[in-house]
Amino acid sequence: MKRFLFVATLLWATAAQAQDSMRMAVTTSFHNSGLADVLLPEIQADLGLEVQLLIVGTGQALRLGEAGDVDAILVHSRAAEEAFVANGYGTHRREIMYNDFVIVGPSNDPAAISDAADANDSLQGIADAKVPFVSRGDDSGTHKKELSLWIDAGLDPTGFGDWYRAVGAGMGAALNTASGLNAYILSDRASWLNFSNKGDLALLFSGDPVLFNQYAYLPVNPALHDHVKSDLASRLEDWLTSERAADLINGYTIDRETLFIFNAKTD
């Protein structure tokens, strides 16, 4: 009888543990920043909730949400996020935190972008100099932002020569390629600060308001996918928008530099 009770208790505990787990698609830039390693253990401790991350670009994260393969997504491409919600794939969009994009390149700065007046001027300098530039090329939020910046500068990346290298890779891998080629690249600040293989690269341009980088949380719509764990997604959202999360996000630094700023609004 005792053995039966022990087995039944074990099965119940296993079922409960399985129930308190959810899948969230996140960007490679969020993962490369190291913030996930800070937040996930605290979420587990506070909520008893295991959050399993699928680490992909924003475009792929949104497609996973559309297919109902995850319960929520955390990404950074506002236009694509709003379309996701407008098309009924997500219940709503909730802003969580932000940082900014930066342009990294060879420390000797052959395109002279460190003195650029704005982001348009910096990209024009790179295009004029035809120096190596590495693009994510993976439909990620960073890639979408990079393409929009070229267009805003009146430039068309499809017409660039061999100096423009689209690698189809995540932020860490793209930074590694840029380091190996001593090339320019657009990165989110957090991934750059947490990147260990900097080589001769340096942060050369930042500060233009157009480089603002907002991250948002989108629960997948259970009306389209009834297996989605909307209750757990809601619990996670409450935690991500709490003072507890704010303290952890704002307190996450590398070399005393803050990587993200919490800006979630309470309902």
Structure description:
This protein is of the alpha/beta class and 267 residues long. Strands 1, 2, 3, 4, 5, 6, 7, 8, 9 and 12 form a ten-stranded mixed sheet that branches. The longest helix has 18 residues. It is globular, with a radius of gyration of 21 Å. The protein starts with a helix and ends in a 5-residue tail after the last strand.
Strand and helix map with partners:
Layout: H1 2-19, E1 21-27, H2 28-32, H3 35-47, E2 50-56, H4 58-66, E3 72-75, H5 78-86, E4 94-106, H6 119-129, E5 133-135, H7 141-152, E6 164-166, H8 171-181, E7 184-188, H9 189-193, E8 201-205, E9 212-219, H10 230-240, H11 243-250, E10 253-254, E11 257-258, E12 261-262
How would you summarize what this structure contains?
42% of the residues lie in helices and 23% in strands.
